[in-house]
Each structure stands twice: as structure tokens, then as C-alpha cells.
Amino acid sequence: VRDALIELDPARGDLVGQLTAGLKAAIRTGKLPPQTRLPSTRALAGDLGVSRGVAVEAYEQLVAEGFLVSRHGSGTRVARGAAAGGRGGPAAGPAGDAGTAAAPAGSGTGADAGQPRYDMRPGTPDLSAFPRSVWLAALRHTLATVPHTALGYADPAGVPALRAELAGYLGRVRGTDATAAQIVAVGGVAEGLALVTRVLAGTGHRVLAVEDPSAIATRELLTGSGLDLVGVPVDSHGIQVGALAATGARAVLLTPAHQFPTGVVLSPDRRAALADWAREADAVVVEDDYDAEFRYDREPVGCLQGLAPDRVVHLGSVSKSLAPGLRLGWAVLPTFLVAAVRAAKHQADYCSPVIDQYALAYLLDSGRYDRHLRGVRRRYRARRDALVGALAERLPDVRVHGVAAGLHVCVELPGGCDEAAVAEAARGRGLAVVPVGDMRLAGRDEDHPPALVLGYANVPEPRLVEAAALLAAAVAAGRTGGTGRDQRLSRSGRDA
Ligand SMILES: Cc1ncc(COP(=O)(O)O)c(C=O)c1O
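Above: query sequence and pyridoxal-5'-phosphate SMILES. Below: predicted holo C-alpha cells.
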């Protein structure tokens, strides 16, 4: 390893990060070829003049990422194929980079036999981009600094440091208008939604309006809420506020920054109309801000909460920015709901994990969260560009919606295509995508143009280009595949 020229600069801090990066670079460039046996952590630490813990952590991280393999008795070696980028790296093979998790947003429970080679079901960020060394530093900082008294049951609303950081961060980045006292730390948007709907049901609400189409998984979360769901159509300006008013519902859940799944941004007129409706109907608007930190071509669109802080519950999380598995999020509440949601949180699980809350507060305070976001935003933008470019080349007659933000696009297929048949043909080619019809409240219908949702965040550029070619082949098959549906559509003249 000394020959691999790893040099650590204590002045730059984060020795684990430096060592990890140095070893990765040595593996990638072939200075440490596959199967090379690495020195023991003790010997390496001695060579480099660092504590053994630094070497242990760097090895552990590289094992987790697939660059190294560690076997009891035979030490630590460079993994076969590691030069291609580790398990989640940019040039990793199909099983690694397409993501292994089911995609909650579009695909219901996501239970699925066999992992598709190209998993473009929406919902998962690039998990290989998780800032491990930054999170480690945050945990280390937390454990070195919090008093033991902080490790008991905390305030159900969250630890004060995190709520204060969130109030500042969300105000700056999302335009929220709220103090720390209005924030409750929750286990993701999912828990925020469960708590808020429980409170709404407890205060006499019977109906919750939701966007049609909308995420199946989110709607599934609401089956136990005691509220009946009623769908409100979404058009190219977002949710139809007139139709919402006609439902008689006094609560609505929506995704204004980047509608899931259509990708539409709620227009300024509709925002104003929604705020007016909420005030007139004494209603509650629940804003699911699930992917709003990712905006590529324009200034971020401020959140709804900033427009009507007395009416809007704003829900967000680190699921897209860091990782869904952290289960960390926030609810920004109108003052009149704070006590009830805090009590519901207490009743649900006392409080969210305290050490993780402090770690997130540290990330926000130190600027490392912003820095990480800048990096992943660049990465996702490049992926979006690759996908949109490849679709334009391979499928010039599709329309791609929702490209300005988020981690997925909505691809409107030419009339006459059967979206389910295309998705099935794609699946047969190893490409998993989700038909929009699956996300409509009444199921598929023939009144809407066929469309598919494609998540691109977890798939590197070259594979997105391949995926576009597979989709083009699937569209060709879906057009001429001769399923009953296709023929029916043809006879009704929609594929003229
Ligand atoms: C539209 C939408 N809302 C909410 C969520 C869930 O977010 P969380 O992980 O914060 O519970 C997702 C997850 O994919 C989503 O797509």
C-alpha cells in the first residue's frame, strides 16, 4: 500500500474519508489489482501514522461498498472486479447499480420476483451516493459531544437542535414560514402523514382528497387512517382546485413541487386558488415535499406552506437527499395542530431516534448537507440529461414531462400504445418501469394518454442510454403486439 502512494494530510481533516478515497483511487487505477492482499489495519495505521481505528473504518467502508472483501483467517483483499467501481459504483454490473430496494412510490408494496437489470421504478435515490464518511463524522461528533442526559426519551417533537436547524434550513431552501416550535421530527413523510391523518380523523374529518393519479404506496399508508380518499384530477397546471372544492373534502394531500407521478409543478394561479379555498373552507392542506430539493433548470419553487402557514402541513424527509433507510423527516405544522401531532407522535413511538436527529442537525449546521446536495444534484442532472437525450433520439414521438425537477420523469407514449403492454414488454427485456394507469384511483382507463414513470436517479448514464433503447423496442412491441387492448384501441381510432 505504501507503493500505492496514499498520502494523508491531517490538516484537511477526515482521515477516514481521505484513506477511503486514496484506496479507492488505487484500486480503480490498478495500482492495487484484484485479489491483492492488504496489510493488517494495525500495519497500515503504523505506516500512515494514524490510529488503527482510521484504518478499520476505511476497510469496513470499502468492504460495504464492494471494493474489498474480508474473510476471517485470510485477511482483507481487493475484490474481483473492484476496479469497475465497487458494488454501487458508476461502472458496476447490473445487479449492483440498478438498486436492490423495491420502489415504494409507484409500485405498491413493490414485492417482485427477480431483480430487473434496469430498475427504473421511481422512489429510490442513488444509494451508492450516501455520504458515509460525512454521516460517520456526524455520529462521531454527536457521540463525542452530547451529554448522557440527552440519550433518554426526548421531546416527542424532536431534539431542539434539529428543530432549530430545520426551521432555518427549510426557510432558506424551501421558503417555509415557521419557527422551530412548529416542527415535529418524524420517521419520514410516511410517518408524518400517518400522524397528521390520525389527528385529522380525530378532529372530525372524514374525507381526504388526494391527487389522481398519485403514489400507490402513499395511498396504501392511508388505509388505516379512518379517512375516505377521494381523487381529484391533475392536469398540466396541477391539481384542479375547482374539482377539489366540489368534493366537499376539508383536507387535501398533494405534491405541489413535482407532482407524483406526472411531474407537473402546481401553477401560481392554482397555488393562490388552493390557499383561498383552504381559508374559505377552513381546510387543511398537506404538502408532500418528497423530492423538492432537486430542481435543475429553474430556481426552486417555494413551498405552499410559505403561502399559507396557518393552513398548510408541510412534510419532507431525507429519503431522497440521503437515504430512505434513515427514516428521518419533518412535519412543519400550523400552530393549531402542533400539540395534537406532538401527542400523536408520543403515542406512536415516544420520539424519533435521538442520535440520528443530532447527526442530521450537525450536517445542517456544518454546511455538509448543502454540500452533499450540490454534489448529488449535479449527478442526477447528468442522469436526467442522459435519459432525456436518449429518449429524444430513440423515441422522438414521446413527450417527456416533469424533467425540471425530482428524480423521475413521466413519459407520455404515442396514442394507440397500451402502457401496460409496453411496461410488460419492457419488463421482458429486463427494464422495470411503472404505468401511470396503475396509479389512478379508478385504475386504468382509456380517457388518458398512455404514460410511464421512469425513475433515473439510481441508474448511471450509460445504462440509461441502454434503457432508452430497450424502451424503444418495448414501445414498438407494445404498438404491434396485438393484445386485446391494442386491438380495441386501434378500432376506436386512437392510434390513427
Ligand atoms: C410521493 C412520495 N411521497 C412520500 C414518499 C415517502 O417518503 P418517506 O421515505 O419520507 O416516508 C415517497 C417515497 O418514495 C414518495 O414518492
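Confidence is low (pLDDT under 50) at residues 87-103, 106-112, 482-496.
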